[in-house]
Amino acid sequence: LMTRLYDYPRFGxxxxxxxxxxxxxxxxxQPQSVMYTAPDASPAAAPLVLLDPNKLSxxxxxxxSSTSFSKDGKLMAYSISRQGILERWCGPWxxxxxxxxxxxFF
Length: 106
Prior knowledge:
With 106 residues, the protein is mainly beta. The chain has one helix and nine strands, in the order H-E-E-E-E-E-E-E-E-E. It is 5% helix and 46% strand.
């Protein structure tokens, strides 16, 4: 019964960062919502996955805690927690910058 109650798509409100919009979406039974980016807020805009926190761990113990964007919207920093404990801040995370990001471990 509980599975049926939670199995429906959910969307977060789009927020503008620079010249792109960022929003979250959950298909229904995903543990965490996936962050997407799109050129505009219309339903016809082709979204790209910005960050999928469900892929941060195989056992589901890592969660996306918070995000912050640069004024121009080109970079994103984020924090993650493992088993409810804030573990690190990571950034900058931007298109083509995944390999050059950094993390501060606590």
